[in-house]
Input
Amino acid sequence: MVTRGEPKDSVGQDTTLQDYSNDLQGDRQTVQMLAPKHSVIEQALEVNYHCMGNAGLARTQEGGFRMSARYRFTHPAGILALCLLAFALAGCAPTQVRQKEGHHEAQESVSVLLMPIDIELSALTAGGIKEVRADWTETAKGLISDTLRKQLANHDDKLIEYVEPKDLEELQQHAQIIKLHGVVGQTIMVYSVLPAAVPPTKKDVFDWSLGEEVTRLRDASGADYGLFIYIRDSYATAGRKALIVTSALLGVNMMAGTQAGFATLVDLRDGSVVWFNRIANQSGDLRTEGPAYSTVEELIEDIPL
Amino acid sequence: MKRIWAGLLLLLSGCSTYTLVDPGQVAVCDLYSVKPGIQWSEINKGDVRLWTVNGAELESIRFISGIHEGVPIMDITNEKQETSFRPDMSESELVDAIVDAFSLSGAQRVQAKNLRPTPFGSMDGFRFELEFMNEDGLKKNGAVIGTIVDESLYLIIYTGASIHYFPKYAQEFETIVNSIRIKKGG
Amino acid sequence: MRRARLQALAILVAGVTLFGCQSNPSRPDESSTVQPGYQPALNSDEAGLWLVMDKSEKELKTSGSLITDARANAYLQEVICLLDSDICTDVRVYLVRIPHFNASMAPNGVMQVWSGLLLRAENEAQLAYILGHEIAHYRYQHSLQMFRQTKTTANILAPFQIVTQAGGIGYAGSLAQVAAVGTLLKFSRDHEREADDGGFDMLVAAGYDPHEAAKVWEGLLKEKDALDEDQPMLFFSTHPPSAERVDTLKQRAQATPEPESGWRTGTEKYNEIVDPLRFGLWRDELRLRRFDATQLLLDRAMDAGRSVPETKFFQAELYSTRAEDDDRAKAESAYRDCLKQADAPSEAYRELAMIYMKSGREQQAVPLFETYLERQPDAFDQSMVKAYIQRINSGEK
Output
């Protein structure tokens, strides 16, 4: 079991990938991987686990997976994992920005509806449980929203604030669109990081959509595009014992310890996703201004507005 | 072996990856074949085949075939509460078992609607619709068609996000259902 | 992200400010009770917590997990006001469709009563005792105290884990989400004692029969015994049970003099409100597939003569669902027994018909199917049942 020194005490200091890269040379025994239950990644690991039996991948008590060092270097899956890890470490993870073919940066200014940010900040307890912290979430949400507006102001486009509809049913429909965005975005994200995960029917095409339901957003706001942002972040609290490497391993963070986030631009006339960008690097504590700023900066980098 | 119903990635295990299913007659199992009208990506795990275009969380068709007595019907979880198949189960009992299996796997507010007899190829079958939400509250729809032949259960389960994805492939699902061809002697 | 969202899991953050104290002779330790109309200071961390809990309340409202029966909700509010007229206006009570015994109150005044509780409480006095118990936790701010003491948060989530592992059919995800509006925290034994006392006092002050208090815990403890180890009772993970508390409550009841006008249990009123909901409550309970525990509840209901046709129906359903050994025979005679009642649930006709149909007695099935369709013209399986009738009549197998 790889035991890392405790992550730096205050939340927001992630277990460092740098440390892990040093370990790669060393003769450590196992690496632990955790994924939220039922998450897309967990299912992928689960399948791998069943295929591998006890050969290389084993379950841990916390519900994660453990991969032996020997396995890493001798098994194709292990090698792949290492390659991905190396990619992630080198900061050159596979494609992180995807764009719809034929979509160009708008010549004239367009209007963009800033959808409510879909964000959750969690604490990772010693038992490996992820616990959403509502107060942390509110703080981060505020900071991110603020800096988003400021940074977008550099683009010559009309920003439209989202207004919550009074009608309960309408509100619920909007909520459904945001939830759908979460699933579509996570799917795009996983595909962008794990090329082998892409179904053949989705290879080399970027034709994602949230469907025509989004026209109700357009009707309500008059906006041409919707900017959706999804962030999940968790911080290991002091006392956390196991090393969590999954995010490093898979280069994405829906899991323990690091950030996961993506932004999409959706054409509100037909629901098509015209632009997608995910965060590849970590930025620390999102409840503070600096990291909030750089996270947003990374999220909207090269946004075609 | 636990059945998988996430169409997502399988690290290079040599165990299972996606294959492409082209339109045209394709054998699903010993009992029957179907004729999809569009391309699907398939993961084949023996008694379960999963088809998807965009990803299983968005839409999928699962072909569950040849479930014998005593086997959990959907084998979605390890929970011992999952109902096992008995050949003398009525259609409503099967509906209940499937609804419960969905619920056990984390689906919320699962509701079955409009249970009715329907042909399964040339056999007698049954069909019902589902409404539910995933764990995050995203609304989803489902359509299930099934039959019992030689004391074994066969199901085709189509699910997808209510917004956009389920409606998008609903017609294709009907095409597939209407194309069921029972193999001779099967 | 597939985990249930815990939007308002309140991790304690400092400084709760209280605006003065009110003396109230029936409550110990007034110095730290929540006063009516309490609002945290605007820039306190607690205010941030309230903001979030208010949002959670909104999600609860739109979650679809609520039982919106107007009479039942009004009734709960009435009982709360009877118990504690001070906080009456602060409390918003929600009846949540979750088939587990639970009631909880969040620091922002949201009271949740889960439908499993309504199936288990036998009268208004028992309901009142539990509500009073929860109000006491709220008034004494036990949740906030627990937060302060708890260093690791693993404690707080333990109940969520237990519940999700117990696989409460369809409720695992929403349970955590919904429960987060309340306070799913394990109270200490001291807290429990204080809340027992406080709840008891409220019960007596409102004129209820104090002997009912101990019965609630007794009933739960018996149910707990009927469950396997891996089927924990959620309520006990937050309210640690003990036999001594039952004894204490019994003793206090003995020591309380009955007023001339007598005590009341409010059984009639309670049944009036809950009877219309019972079918759904039993249906949800049976879905949990905890047959021994459910049998206990059925026995109690039969003994008390509650909603006899329904109780008999669900007894038959239990046999039918469990389907072990000679359950099939038991189910058949239980459905027949149920159908002797004038207002047997219409499903009973269908179920008996199915049994006949599957056992070669098709002709006997047809009139039962027809009665089912008559009584429930918009049944979700009407097409299927019509097909059965047709099949039988045309002589097919």
